[in-house]
């Protein structure tokens, strides 16, 4: 079984607000850094994404892939690889836990990446760590700056 990498961050917002940003795939290119395009291909009965096509550029890992999402309650989402040009596996999850009486949220991001090309385990785990750290920092900045922040930033330019 492949090893996974995980990290956590605390965000000054309620879990529902954090999950709202996580579930808004159309806006991923605004805050994730690595995701250049996101397209929801299928939704479940609640209107949540079930399959999403992502164009990823994470330095050593560049790929056009499709992920299947599973939503567990209100505070957890996990995904697994459906198809990819470069990846053999891309499994991950966001788990949210309320903090500060619900005013804050601890977000734990877990990720396992397996590429089709040979890559040293140490290099692969470093790439996973970079992806996780950037995603968590981007998520924190996005949530804490409010829903309209990227558009507001663009108006200042």
Task: Characterize the structure shown.
This protein has helices spanning 15-23, 28-31, 121-145, 149-156, and strands at 5-11, 35-43, 49-58, 61-72, 76-84, 87-99, 104-115. With 157 residues, the protein is of the alpha+beta class. A hairpin with a 4-residue loop joins β6 and β7. α1 crosses α3 (121-145).
Describe the structure in brief.
The protein has 157 residues and is α+β, with helices and mostly antiparallel strands. The chain contains four helices and seven strands. It has helices at residues 15-23, 28-31, 121-145, 149-156; strands spanning 5-11, 35-43, 49-58, 61-72, 76-84, 87-99, 104-115.
Key features of this structure:
alpha+beta; seven-stranded antiparallel beta sheet; 29% helix; globular; disordered C terminus
Mind summarizing the main beta sheet? 7 strands, antiparallel
Strands, total number: 7
Structural class: alpha+beta
Query: Can you give the helix content as a percent range?
Result: 25-40%
How many helix segments? Answer: 4
* Cross-sheet strand order for the largest sheet: 1-7-6-5-4-3-2
Topology:
Blueprint (H helix, E strand, L loop, with lengths): L4 E7 L3 H9 L4 H4 L3 E9 L5 E10 L2 E12 L3 E9 L2 E13 L4 E12 L5 H25 L3 H8 L1
Antiparallel strand pairs: 1-7, 2-3, 3-4, 4-5, 5-6, 6-7
């Amino acid at each position: 079984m492949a090893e996974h990498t995980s990290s956590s961050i605390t965000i000054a917002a309620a879990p529902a607000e954090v999950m709202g940003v996580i579930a808004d795939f159309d806006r991923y290119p605004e805050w994730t850094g690595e995701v250049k395009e996101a397209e929801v291909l299928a939704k479940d009965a609640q209107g949540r994404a079930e399959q999403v096509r992502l164009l990823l550029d994470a330095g050593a890992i560049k790929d056009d892939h499709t992920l299947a999402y599973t939503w567990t309650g209100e505070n957890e989402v996990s995904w697994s690889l459906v198809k990819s040009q470069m990846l053999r596996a891309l499994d991950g999850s966001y788990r949210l836990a309320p903090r500060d009486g619900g005013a804050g949220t601890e977000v734990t991001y877990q990720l396992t990446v397996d590429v089709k090309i040979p890559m040293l385990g140490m290099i692969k785990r470093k790439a996973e760590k970079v992806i996780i750290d950037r995603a968590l920092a981007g998520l924190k900045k996005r949530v804490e700056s409010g829903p309209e922040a990227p558009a507001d930033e663009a108006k200042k330019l």
